[in-house]
Amino acid sequence: MIKSIFTIMAALLLSLTVTAVNATPVDTYEFKSVENQKRALGLAHSLRCPQCQNQNLIDSNSPVAQDLRLEVYEMVDAGKNDAEVIEFMTSRYGDFVLYKPRMEAKTLVLWLGPVGLLIIAFIIGFIFIRKQRIVATEVVEISAEEQSELDKLLKRDDK
Prior knowledge:
The protein is mainly alpha-helical. The protein has two domains: 2-96, Helicase, Ruva Protein, domain 3 (Orthogonal Bundle); 107-158, no CATH class. 67% of the residues lie in helices and 0% in strands. It has six helices and no strands. The protein has helices spanning 2-22, 34-46, 63-77, 82-93, 108-137, 144-158. It is elongated, with a radius of gyration of 34 Å. This is Formate-dependent nitrite reductase complex subunit. Residues 1-23 form the signal peptide. Possible subunit of a heme lyase.
């Protein structure tokens, strides 16, 4: 009885220790309001980690992402709006931190490229299908000599 209580207490203490080791100051940040927390988490989800490159600030475990998460949290709690936070991040790390790039002259290819490729694919497909139809509808006429030779071959195959 005492041994089982001791085992349960040890397991509980171990589980609390393990979870405390994984907690970081960024993960335990206390916001001034629930609205600020939602806004900050939304911003951190929309910003890419400069070190990991394919993860947002929330999903990344890198030290850079932890620092940037904390920076975003503090800026939101300080009363800065989303545009100011994004402007700060892009001025510091460039447009790379944005998952959705801005519509500018230098990013026009990113926005219009897929549409352009789709239009080109439709044009090529249309031309290809049209050529196939033209080739299939052409009637090839053969001479009487070629027709008699064909008849002989077909009669020979029937036997």
